[in-house]
């Protein structure tokens, strides 16, 4: 019994890439890629919406004094439009918690801040307040000691000032492990002696009126800035790229499968020949 001649075998035509892509398996994968791309597109649109402030605050809004309760919440971060807002707050100073912070500049001159621990009454929370500037450490220490002795812990005071975001704590210099060089409520909290059970503001206030014979602290109004957040626009563009990559990945996988099928057909024809 003889095998049929090669001329008698049916001619096999290789599939086209389009035919491979229209197979059920690749259509299912395309639908999956469409779903993934839709999610990426939605994330891009959401990021873009956050990038453009459609209702920016009017110029000079930070200079209007507002109750601190309308600006910040104890324990929570401050949103960008409200950083630098002038606020009014009432409370009592804790006599034992006047602390000096180093590396503070006023008019380009390095000096020291004297800070205080204010027990705010509305809402009930602890707030760090910078109450004045001194050019030397001795002057700052003397003012802090005098304020600690003269402060009545039961006297309710009302002050105005500019609310500023936490600068973040840093390790103290090796020369003095007790020295604080950043205005950070978290760092001051570790040094306050009378904390109690109250919440703590993450921000601090630079008082308009200095105390204890100290100098005014330079605290200019923040720049108006831009209503466009370019970082968010960059993130939105990234999501669009990811969506496009989902389709490219589907195309690349389908093409790889097609090329592999062509190779297998070519190898089979070579063996038959």
* Overall mean confidence score, pLDDT: 85
In DSSP terms (H or I, runs of 4 or more residues), the helix count works out at: 5
Largest sheet, order of strands side by side? 2-4-5-7-6
Rg (C-alpha, Å): 34 Å
N-end to C-end Cα span: 19 Å
Structural class assignment: alpha+beta
What does the model show?
With 273 residues, the chain is α+β, with helices and mostly antiparallel strands. 35% of the residues lie in helices and 22% in strands. The protein has 5 helices and 7 strands; from the N terminus they run ααβββββαβαβα. A 5-stranded mixed β-barrel has the order 2-4-5-7-6. The longest helix is centred in the last third of the chain and has 43 residues. The two termini are 19 Å apart. The mean pLDDT is 85.
Please outline what is shown here.
With 273 residues, this protein is of the alpha+beta class. It has helices at residues 17-21, 24-51, 137-150, 185-189, 230-272, and strands at residues 66-67, 86-93, 99-106, 109-121, 124-134, 157-164, 199-207. The chain is built from 5 helices and 7 strands; from the N terminus they run H-H-E-E-E-E-E-H-E-H-E-H.
